[in-house]
Amino acid sequence: MVFTKSKYIGRTFIQNAQDTRRKLVGLKLNPIKTSVKDKKIVLIDDSIVRGTTITKLIAVLKRAGAKEVHLRIASPAFMDVCYFGTDIDNKENLITNNRTIEEVRQIIGADSLEYLSLESLKEITKDCHISSLCNGCFSGKYPIEVPKEIRKNSFEEIKL
């Protein structure tokens, strides 16, 4: 364990505004300095979408004295909008948009960064009895036709 988590701060990535996400991340997790100081740390996360949370966490760990922070992501890199569940309003808000993995690594401040490959994702899900696994946000190839444009918060704007 390298963090204590505030039970008063909920899911930061679902907040509507980037500024709000950034502030809440800073309040949500606090490093345990004795567990971090002079250590090489490997963080494992499910994904990186905008980079807000992981950038803050890496900076906090390094300020707490971590010698190195390496990041392993248990999904392929988000390369496109997700129309079926992940809160991505447009491609421009993805940290990977027009960037290499090395550029993303530099932005987030990690000493190394690796993602699960799309091929590995397909391999580990092949026996899940799913007729077709959507990987559109990772590949840009969707199982059905998707909108050309999507407006974030469009459902929140509907007057009832």
Topology summary:
Blueprint: E1 3-5, H1 18-28, E2 29-31, H2 33-36, E3 40-45, H3 52-63, E4 68-73, H4 101-108, E5 112-115, H5 118-124, H6 136-139
Describe this structure as you would to a colleague.
It is a single chain. Helix 1 (18-28) runs parallel beside helix 3 (52-63). The model has no long low-confidence stretch (mean pLDDT 82). By secondary structure, this protein is an alpha/beta fold. The chain is globular. The strands form two sheets. It has a three-stranded parallel beta sheet with strand order 3-4-5, with helices on one face. The chain contains six helices and five strands; from the N terminus they run βαβαβαβαβαα.
In short:
The chain has 160 residues and is an alpha/beta fold. The protein has helices at 18-28, 33-36, 52-63, 101-108, 118-124, 136-139, and strands at residues 3-5, 29-31, 40-45, 68-73, 112-115. It is globular, with a radius of gyration of 17 Å.
Note the run of SSEs as H and E.
EHEHEHEHEHH
Number of domains: 1
Strand percentage, roughly? 5-15%
Gyration radius, to the nearest Å? 17 Å
- The CATH architecture would be 3-Layer(aba) Sandwich
**Share of helix among residues?**
25-40%
Strand elements, count: 5
Distance between the termini: 45 Å
Assembly classification: single chain
Question: Which terms would index this structure?
Answer:
about 160 residues; Rossmann fold; three-stranded parallel β-sheet
